[in-house]
Amino acid sequence: MASKPGILTDWPWKPLGSFKWVILTPWIAHSTYSFLVNDPKERDLGYFLIFPYMMVRMLHDQIWITLSRHRTAKGKNRIVDKGIEFEQVDRESNCKIFENSITLIPESSHLPLWRTDGVVITALLHAGPVEFLYYWLHRALHHHFLYSRYHSHHHSSIVTEPITCMFSIFLF
Question: Which domain of life is it from (predicted)?
Fold first, then answer.
């Protein structure tokens, strides 16, 4: 891990271990209750569908991860002759819980499920400033000060797999 860990280098729920997913339970109960009890005009379908969407996304991730691991295990073109460990998979999947923090933003309620103008704006932002900033901020994270405290966590996975790219610490 990091040679000089900086502040916020661990997720707040790390001490919970395998029970870290339990912190989603109150949010799931609240979203389900509010969807069932509220007037149909006041229901927020987007808020209710975040958890099912997260589960579908995790299933999709798992399919690709399984295919990737199968190819690594059975293939002849291995880069590293080492198996993947549970600690690495657990460490790399921590950021999925953090994605639900979008529900804490008041403006994120009652959003439409699809808007074409939003797709166009997102594509333009992603192709333009987001990619530019991502590249240069990632380069900055390779500076010794930031790398030794934060970014080395990202490079600590020796056996890479599809989910490795999503791995980040709480701060980044």
Answer: Eukaryota
